[in-house]
Amino acid sequence: MLNNNVLLHLLMASTETIKFTCGIIATIIGTASFYPYLRDVFKRKTQPHTYTWLIWTILQVTGVLAMYNNGAGIGALTLAIGAFFCGYIFILSLKYGSKNITTFDTLCLIGALASIAVYFFLHNAVLAVILITLIDLVGFLPTMRKAYSEPYSETLSMYALFFVSSGFNLVAIGVYSITTTLYPATIMCTNLICTTILWARRR
């Protein structure tokens, strides 16, 4: 019995170490992923889509609060840093952003903002995170459309690095549930899709 307790304790300690390590790796890669994007923005090679970055800023702040309050632990750190950079890129987009904004993009923005307003009236964490995830997908659509039509107006390496970072971030989550995993898992998938679109269109 004692040996079983010792083994269980060692296993739990090992798991926590792995989660902490993955959280640090995710944070480092996630932070580094913004460097090539910001570099390209200032070089006028990348034109961030204002609508997308505004939606992401609001969502990531909301998502971080929801994850942290439901036991995500260090798994929320990467998204917290991401929220800061999203806000910074949104500000930059007002000057350096894309002028390729269509009616479709505007409809996505209106729908996302309306959904965010609805979110604040919800008192169910699971439904709230599901709604945040759906809004994030809608917010990504204008950038995906732009990535398809103008593949060199986005920085491929940022999306690829953030996809990798999101994978480590999922491992780092302290308590697994729909509330803590759905949103970061969706971020991982959307970054993979955007990476694939940019890579394929450039070829």
Concise synopsis of the structure shown:
The chain is mostly helical and 203 residues long.
| Residue-averaged pLDDT | 80
Order of helices and strands: HHHHHHH
Query: What is the SS-derived class?
Result: mainly alpha
Shape: globular
Task: Report the sheet-strand fraction.
Answer: under 5%
Oligomer: single chain
N-to-C terminal Cα separation, in Å? 61 Å
Amount of helix: over 70%
Q: Uncertain regions: pLDDT < 50 for 5+ in a row?
A: none
Radius of gyration: 18 Å
Tally of discrete structural domains: 1
With helices defined by DSSP (H or I, 4 residues minimum), what is the helix count? 7
The main β sheet shows up as:
none
Q: How many strands in all?
A: 0
Structure overview:
It is built from seven helices and no strands. By secondary structure, it is mostly helical. It starts with a helix and ends with a helix.
Describe how the helices and strands are arranged.
Layout: H1 2-42, H2 50-69, H3 77-96, H4 103-119, H5 125-149, H6 156-172, H7 178-202
